[in-house]
Structure formats: C-alpha cells, structure tokens
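Sequence of Glycerate kinase (Clostridium sartagoforme).
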Amino acid sequence: MKIVLAPDSFKESMTAKEACLAMEKGIKRVINEIEIVHAPMGDGGEGTLDALVDATNGEIYYKDVVAPLGNKVRARFGILGDKKTAIIEMAEASGLHLVDKDNRSPLITTSFGTGELIKEALDKDVDRILIGLGGSATNDAGVGMLQALGVRFKDKENNEVSYGGGELRKISSIDISNLDKRILSTKIEIACDVKNPLTGPEGASEVFGRQKGANDEIVKILDENLKHFANISRKIIGKDIDNIQGAGAAGGLGAALIGFCNGEVKPGIDTVIEYSRLEDKLKGADFVFTGEGSIDFQTKFGKTPAGVATLAKKYNIPVIAFAGKIGKEINELYSLGIDSIVGITPGVMELDKALKEGKNNLAVATENIVRIIAIKHSIL
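Predicted 3D structure, token representation.
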C-alpha cells in the first residue's frame, strides 16, 4: 500500500513537514510495511517557503532587512533543490505579524525589506523567483520593494519620498534607470489567490486596509494614493497596473511586481504542486492524506486541501482531509475530490491547548482512520 501525505501547515501548531511526520507516526502505529511519501504543501501564504524547501531538499538563508515600520528584522528565503529557483514569502520581511496591533498603520508601513530579500536572492544567481504574497502589513503599492531594487520616487521638490502608503500622493516622478537589471532577466512568479485590482471597491485599500490598521477615512486616502501611483506609473512604464487581476495583492505589491518586474500571477497551490512534483508522487498511490488548520467552504477557493484533492481526483485516488477546526458548508468540498473530512481535536478544549497538542492529535486521528482502512483491506 502507498499513502501520499500532502498537508499544508496547521497555523500556529505545526509546519507542513511536521504534519507529515505526525501523520506517518499515526500510520505506523497500525501498519509498518507501507510506502509513505511526504509532500508538504502550501498555497502561497504562510508555510509555502518551508514546504517547497522541504519538498525539494533546498536550503534556507537568512538576511537582516527593513521591517514594515523601518526597524530591522531577520527574515528568511529559500533556494530550492534545483539551485536556480528562489522562494520568498513577503510576510517574512513585510508581514502583519511583525507589527504590534497598536502600531499598525498602512500609511507608514513599507515593503522595502521584501525588495532586499529579492536582491539577496538575485545574488544567489537564480533564474527564477517565486514570491508568496500572503499576510502583508503594507499598502504602499510595492514602492518600498522597488526602492530597494533601485527605483527612485521623487516629489515636486525633487526629494526622495519616504516609506508608506501615505507617501504615494507626493510622487511626482519615477526614475527606473537604476532598477536592478537582473530582475528583468529573471522569471518572477507571484503565488497568489487574490484577484483584486489595485484600487476601487474591490481594491487593496478597501478590502484589506482595515485589517492592517486603517479606519474608513484612511482607507479613502490610501485608495486615492494608489490611484495617483497607478496614473504616474502608466506614464513611465506604459502599463495599466490598476485593473490587472492580482494587482491589489499585498497592498499593491502585486501591481509593482507585475508592472515593473514583469511578474506573472499564478494560483498559489498550483505553483506549489508544480514545484513539489506532487503529480509524480501520486502515481500508484492508494490514498492521499491532506489537511490544514481550518477547513470550511472557503477551502474551495484555492486552499491546499482543495488543490490536492482536485489533482488526486484526476487519478481516482481517495482523499482524506484532516483539520483542527471544521467549519460551515463543507459539503461543497466533496465534489472536488475530498472523500472524508476528519477533525483532529478529540474534544472541547482551550485553543492554546489544542494548538500545543496538535501534532499528537493529528497522529491519533490518522491512526484511527488507518485502522478503518486496515480493516477494509484485511491488513489487521
């Protein structure tokens, strides 16, 4: 028997790799003679870096970069096993988790550190950079990132503009002559499931600004500033970065990567499936185990269990999904190829305890499912 383990991370409880190990532990409590294939997953957000580095036997690197509020933070990026592909999670340098709730303000937060990670990756002589755009603290249209890559943004007095979404309205000219030329000869893939445009009712500020610390008045200011930036950019690069799907991701970082760096947006889970070679690993599998911290009706919108199940369904492989929390309307997921959804929490408990005991709970839940499988296949 062959079982492929393809979970996402269980947020704040275990990485995708640790989830694989917990599943394997549960399986081997029941069956020892079995082929188990680890395929840690991600969907472009938190955990994608670790998942792809683990899946390809790559390497993690560290760099001190500018954090959202201008202080320094030690951030990670990865080089995959092919030695030519870098993986960056923008949240490592510019993530919301790096800013205390009381200090969150997209008027001043910057994506500069993400640009520094990109430069560091280019120094590793890569041909391709995969950038995950989940969890940003910024609403600066990627201007900070572009500043780190050499682009100069000046006001009417020819002074350099400072950090943050509040500065965009001051931009009078954009000088791209010093943009790091390596970025234009490197394939930039944007792992993102957000389809929002840069501005307007569905834009970066209106949809995501409040969770980053903006009130209604500031959201309006940020949206106007992004429109101003889009208009100035159009004159310089000849592209309408406002209405492109995905331009509003990560506070407009998507717009900068698409417009100035020739980036291409791809669904996060599809990208991870490609790089992890999951389709090859599925060959000859009898079952696929996937999962993540929470599964509900939103899982169908590009989340890991849905992406894994869709691919497994192509080969008629049964899929069992494990979750720390099972939400509403999960019936919609069964048509995607998920055959069963299993909660791992054994009973009512405090969230902190559930997170702390997540690995053990996943191992026990997996064991219980495998015991049912074993009975069916007369293995016990």
